[in-house]
C-alpha cells in the first residue's frame, strides 16, 4: 500500500527484494539522492559539435537497430534538446552491441533524415552501418600527389587542436625553410589556387603539416594506432608521430628534402603508372630509369628519364595494359634524384633520432622497421632514391594483424589503393579515409570517427565533445526485438526459416526474398539496389546519370568510391564481396549478374 515517507534528519533509505520462482533472488538498497540547487542553463560557445556530430546506435538485430533509429528520429523531431547533447549522451551513456550504425549530422533536419533512412533500411550518404571487428588499427599517411588547394582549411576553423598543431608544424617548417621560399607554408596550403602548392617544396612541406595536424586531432579523441606507415613523404609524418623525430628535426628533414628536390631540373623526367607486375618491369630498367613505386601486385610506377619511361609505358600499352603519365614536376625515387643526395645527407647529419614508440612499417623494405633502422641519416637518403614498396607495406600490416586501415591524408588515395594490394583481405577488413577529397572536411572526419566506433576501435568517447559543453540528457529506451513464447490455442505450429546457404552469404534475408521471385523480378530488385547504392556512393562526384550499362569509371567512380560501393553492397546483401568488385564487374548490370549468382545458387 502507498504510505507517507516523512523526512528525517538523515537520508531516506529503502530495501527492495525480488524473489524469483527458480530460486534466484535479488536485493538492493536505495538511498535518497542529495538535493542539488537548481542551476540555470549556461550558454555555451558554439563549436563544431553544434553543427556536425556522430549519432551512434547499436543493437542485437537489424530489426532492433531500425527501431532504434525510428525512436531517435521521433525524439529529435520533438525538439527541446540540443543535437550535441543527444549525440554526447548516445556515445557515453549507452551500451554498445555488435550491430552498429552512425548518422553523421550537420544539423537537426539532417539528423532526422538520416535516422529515418536508417529506420527504413535505406542507404544515405551520412549513414554508416556495420558490425564490430577484431584486429589492430594502422594509421597511414598519404604521399605526394594527394594534395589539394585549401586542404585543412575547414578543420582549422572547426577544431582548435588541429589549428594549434598545424600552426606549430608550419612555424617549424618556415624556420627550416627561411631564405629558401617566398611564402609561409600555411598561406600556400590554404590558398584558393593550387599553383604554388603543386611545387615540390610546398607540396611536401604542406602535406607534412596537414597530416601531422590531422593525426594530433584524432589522437586528441583517444585514437591510438597499433602501427603506422606512410607513402614516400608520408613516412616522415609516420616517423615523427611515432617518436623517431622531434618536430624541429622532422621539419629540418622535410624542408631539406623538399627544397633540394625542387632545385633539381624539371625538364626531361617522367613518372608513369603501368599495369604490370614488378618482375615484368625489372628486365626493362636501365641506369636512367627505375621503379619509383610498387602500389599493387600489378601497379608499378616507372620513374626516370622521360624517353625511357615513356618507352616502357608504350611497351605495356601495346599489350593492352593501362598506363598513365603522372602529373609531377620531378621524377622521384629514380636516378634523377642522385644530384641531391650528397647535399641532403649533409643537411640532416646533425639530426637526432630515437627508436619509435609506435611500430613503423618501412617504405624501403616493405617490412616492420627493425630497431635502429630509422635512426640513421643514410636510411632517409636511401628513402628518396629507392622504390616506395607500398604493396609490401600493406601486406606486412595485414600480416601484423591489422584489419582497420585509417588513412590520414587530403584525398583518400591510399584507401583506393589498398584493396588492390590486399585482394584476399579478410572479410572484415576496412579501409577508412579521414577525408575524401574536395568535399566538406568536418563531416568527413566525423564520419571516419564514426566508422572506427562501428568497428569497435577504442577511443575516448567524451573527448570529441570536450569543448562543446554537451550534457547528458534523457534518450529513448532500447527498442527490444520482442518475441512471443506463449502457445497459440489449437494445434501449435512452429515457423522455421531456412536461410539460403551459399559459400559467402551470412544473412539469408535478401536471398530468401529473391528465391520467391521470378528471374525477371530478381533482376529488377537487384538492379534497383545496385543503382541506388551507386548513386549514394558517388554523391557529388557523379559526372552523369548512373544506368544499367553505364561503365562505373565513366560516370565519376574512382578507386575510393568503388570500395565505398562494395562496402555498402556488403551491408545490403549480407555477402562478403571482393574489394575488386567494381573492377571485375565494371557496370551495374554486371554487378547485378554477379550478385544474383551468389544469392541464388
Q: Brief overview, please?
A:
The chain is an alpha/beta fold. Helix content is 40%, strand content 13%.
Question: How would you sum up this structure, described in words?
Answer:
With 601 residues, this protein is α/β, with parallel strands linked by helices. Among the domains are: 138-266 and 329-454, Malonyl-Coenzyme A Acyl Carrier Protein, domain 2, CATH 3.40.366.10; 509-599, Non-ribosomal Peptide Synthetase Peptidyl Carrier Protein, Chain A. The chain is 40% helix and 13% strand. The protein is built from 21 helices and 13 strands. It has helices spanning 62-77, 83-93, 108-119, 153-158, 160-176, 185-189, 200-220, 233-241, 247-263, 278-281, 306-318, 338-347, 377-385, 390-399, 413-421, 441-454, 509-515, 519-538, 559-573, 581-584, 588-599; strands at residues 13-19, 25-31, 53-59, 99-105, 127-131, 136-141, 227-230, 269-274, 289-296, 299-305, 323-325, 402-408, 430-433. The strands form 4 sheets. The chain has a 4-stranded parallel β-sheet, with helices on both faces. It has a 4-stranded antiparallel β-sheet with strand order 9-10-8-11.
Lay out the secondary structure.
Blueprint lengths: L12 E7 L5 E7 L21 E7 L2 H16 L5 H11 L5 E7 L2 H12 L7 E5 L4 E6 L11 H6 L1 H17 L8 H5 L10 H21 L6 E4 L2 H9 L5 H17 L5 E6 L3 H4 L7 E8 L2 E7 H13 L4 E3 L12 H10 L29 H9 L4 H10 L2 E7 L4 H9 L8 E4 L7 H14 L54 H7 L3 H20 L20 H15 L7 H4 L3 H12 L2
Parallel strand pairs: 6-7, 6-12, 12-13
Antiparallel strand pairs: 1-2, 3-4, 4-5, 8-10, 8-11, 9-10
